[in-house]
Amino acid sequence: MATVGIIANPVSGKDIRRLVAHGSVFDNQEKVRIVRRMLMGLERTGVRRVLHMQDYYAIVDRAARGCDTRIEIAGATIPMENSQLDSTRAARWMVDHGARCLIVLGGDGTCRAVAKGTLAVPLLPISTGTNNVFPQMIEASIAGLAAGLIATGRVPSGEGTYRSSCLEVLSGDTLKDMALVDVAVSRDTFVASRAIWDLSTITQVFLTRCRPDSIGLSAIGGQLRIIRPWSRTGLHLVLGSGDRRVTAAIGPGLFQSVAVKSAVLMNAGESIAVDAGACVLALDGEREVDVAAGEPIAIRLCADGPRVVDVARTMESAQVRGLFVETI
User: Fold this and answer.
1) Domains and CATH numbers, the chain
2) Region for residue 234 given its phi and psi (left: phi exceeds 0; alpha: psi -120 to 50; beta: otherwise)
């Protein structure tokens, strides 16, 4: 029985950047409608079972009640803490119970939490967060088709997905944490409200990808280079007095100008030491890791991050195979 997992974060798209920037709000009823359309797409590809992370708003259960589908819906039986750990544990549980593709509704932070739970199956991330670089803005009906095609094997994973790079936070030889898009070094010594929107305290930025049409910290690098998420290269920026000043959209409607001292390419497997004393590391736009003075911290670019469904390539492969065409 082809099985897909759905992790819909009920709090994505509601952080403090709605107050300090001009981001739109994804309410949970809209997420219900998104999931409902996804279920219809999944069913068209032959998916018969959906596992989901249970949440206080019952997003997936509400979506299933509002559409006529033969898909079996089952909630993950895991302890819930209303934290990022819920997404991490749910991802691990779903793969253990047969999911062959995970659809994630959230932002960069939600996708990071899911990737920390498993790298065993492809992810299809749908943007319902704030600074969205890793997830895609995609119509949910088509996302359901693409996820179903990968989960059922009707489109081979090698044709419809790519392996994304990630960043590993090392304390000595110990893997301390990871990020999918960016790691920022902040002179702050406390986590506070987590979200990054002021660059005045940021001294270094590590990126797995960057484009000039991006948003968030990767938009800074995007004004200097274009790096694809599957390219096995990254970018290390040192901010401060230099001969370049970059203006970028670091949040919805929020532009900042920052001086860039250096911009150096990183290769897969390469580590760069963070020599900043006591500081805080922001992972994918949110302060997460406290670093003590003297702690040996380095950031390593890893080419073996999550496998991601490329919706366009998957649907093109389906078209070449004539999967949605009948002879009459």
Assistant:
1) 3-164+306-321 (3.40.50.10330), 166-302 (2.60.200.30)
2) beta
